[in-house]
Amino acid sequence: MSEPRDPRTVSLADEEGVKRILIDTLFGLWSLVNNLTRLRPSKRERYRVTIFGSARTQPGHWVYDEVKRLAAELAALDCDIVTGGGPGLMQAANEGARSSAAGERAQSVGIRVDLPFEQEVNPFVQEAYEHQTFFTRLHHFVLLSDAYIVVPGGIGTVLETMLVWQLLQVRHLRDTPLILTGKMWSELVDWAARYMLRPGFELANPEDMAIPRCVTGADEAIAIVREHHARWLQSQTQQRIGDSPSCQEDRPS
């Protein structure tokens, strides 16, 4: 006489039952990862600027040189530079971060996604990460960054920009500059305002259109980051003072 079957088990022949277990397990893993990403360091040692841009723009193009200069000046402010780690304007930013004019402590970081046509991280990346999916890679950018600068780019750059824009809209990100450089991005914001704020058919709020800071070039972007970085440094100093032993003793129990 066979033993009674455990009602918790599912036969591999039960296709629907197996699908349910797989789906429940995947959602459980996502829930676990989401819970872990709630953890944050008590303080950040480094200020990091992510620069999103095209993989197609080659050295020698004036935009390449301008992005390189942008990153170099930010690195000179002691900002780490984060990119997608690939060629084009990502390489320009990493190259600028490593240039002789850059700050000695600034790091050049690349967060790649595994693609068959981009085999190697660009040679100017000091610290590289690689993801299998765009979704985890985008999340990594969000966890790592204090400011974002968007330079000319294609569909991938649009994806990155829209993610950050929405996270700021719904306040999953706060006090994080999203700086769009160049006419192509200001026209994108104009398009969004024109079609999403139509009277009687509103699809967004007017304040949502003010989230991206549209600028014409590198110098304006640097000025915005410089101001935000200064506030960040001030908050770090205040936090260190507040965490000092003398201040701890003065606090009421």
UniProtKB/TrEMBL annotation:
Q: Looking at the record's lineage, which domain of life comes first?
A: Bacteria
Spell out the reaction equation it catalyses: AMP + H2O = D-ribose 5-phosphate + adenine
Q: Which Enzyme Commission numbers does its entry carry?
A: 3.2.2.4
Q: Can the keyword Hydrolase be found in this entry's annotation?
A: yes
Q: Which Pfam families match?
A: Lysine_decarbox
Which keywords does UniProt give here? Answer: Glycosidase, Hydrolase
Molecular function GO terms recorded: hydrolase activity, acting on glycosyl bonds
Q: What is this protein called?
A: AMP nucleosidase
Q: Which organism is it from?
A: Thioalkalicoccus limnaeus
